[in-house]
Amino acid sequence: MTTSQKVMKAAGFLMAANLVSRILGFVRESLLAGLFGKTGATDAYNTAFILPDLLYWLLVGGVLSAAFIPVLSEYIAKGREEEGWKVVSSVTNLVFLFLCVLVIIALIFTPKFVALQVPGFSPENRDLAIYLTRILLLQPVILAMSGITMGILNSYKIFWPSAIGTVLYNASVIFFGALFANSGDTRSISGFAFGVVIGAAANFLVQIPALRRVGIRYYPVIDLKHPGVKKIMVLALPMIIMYTLNQFQVIINSNLGSALVPGSLTAIWYSYRLFQLPVGIFALAIGVAVFPTLSEQAALKKFKKFLETISGAIRLIMFITIPISVGMIVLRFPLIRVLFEHGEFGPEDTAETAVPLFYFALGITAQAIIQILPRAFYALQNTWMPVILGVIAMGASIIWMIVLVGPLAHGGLALAVTLGAIIQMFLLFFVLRSKLGGIDGKRLTVTFGKTFIASMLMGIIVMLWSDLLTPWAGVGKLGSLIVLCSGAFIGVVIFALITRILRMEEYSMAMEMLGSKIRKKS
Q1: 172-206 b/e with 16+ CB inside 10 Å = b?
Q2: What does the alpha-carbon distance between residue 384 and residue 387 come to, in Å, rounded to a whole number?
Q3: What pTM value is reported for the model?
Q4: Looking at per-residue confidence, does 180 or 315 come out higher?
């Protein structure tokens, strides 16, 4: 089996697992919407994730995404596993201790942090946000151990335990959210928060058996002088800075959104979840599957294969996400009705949520591609450049937020995120091309052009179908489901026929990946 086939097989599995996880995620969001609607309580719940996420990404996210996997993959590729485990132990112990200290400090200063990020909240919603934040602050330490375990297994190109863990995570949130929820008591929304903490623990525990099978070796040491530990710290530093600054953008978004109509932040959050669906299922799966291979190719200086791996991943992502972007724009109303419109979430909430979804959907492909391009830099053990470019794009996004929130309200905040992602994508392309002496630009351009044409033709046909069917089927749950499913089916068939007629290589790549999954099941 070739390297490309191995990557596609891993990506195919991750996509399937991510699809199940995301479906459960939308069951969770739909349950939350039905029980609590689009209100100040759900704004408080979504706000409560900001501080715990900041702590996690501050120490663990940057270490894993930029430094941990490339360094450990290098030790494995060069036959120095024992040395690699000493590095893993030192980094794990260091992260665990620092994170525990930061969580204790965060628990003490939670009220001040919440007041800073959402000054427009009413006192009642601010108190609820503080309460929920303190529950969720139990999560980062557990999630850190889970993330490091995932990084170790991914370095060995073992992906299934973490994929199953995300399914268990969402299932836990659904179970405990439904168990404790009472739409008449806003504080009962804490059931979802407790489910998040318990789900994080399940995510960690399910990975332990696979970790034992690869021969876990743990050392109770923190060796800051070890070359591998030093390398991880040097590589992680810019990412820590990047994620810290990224939270500044989140705070600006929350700050501006908290002054809008109550429920605006929830509308952004629900639409953001929908927009992240294809990014999480396809782009993130391909990025995770490709990263250890890129790290290995870079460590062994196989730069021709390195470039082929990047090009193939990006072309496949464009082929998948451009039609999804068009389809989500055309079918956004029935999509929101099917997933969220019930209970406390009414038609006016659907209309409000459709606004940011439109603007978010314009940036799906850009967001998907920036799941790959930074990983190319990380595999080359260059973490400063994507951070610098990310900060530039983030600055542009914040400026757009301030400019657009007035005329477009919560839609302006969503459009600002999309514009920032597009800027970041082009900056990454330009710099990576200069570093590698090329980026397979001709093939990428051809793939984009053909996919865009096929997607627009598909979108026109699906829009006509939707306009024809909606008056007959209605805008209820069943009618919207009929419009959504039939429109999606027609879209897939039309797009597949056009791209097959165009003899696109990416069509064959996608079919190969899908075919391997079908053969595995049969």
Answers
A1: bbbebbbebbeeeebebbbbbbbbbbbbbbbbbbb
A2: 5
A3: 0.71
A4: 315
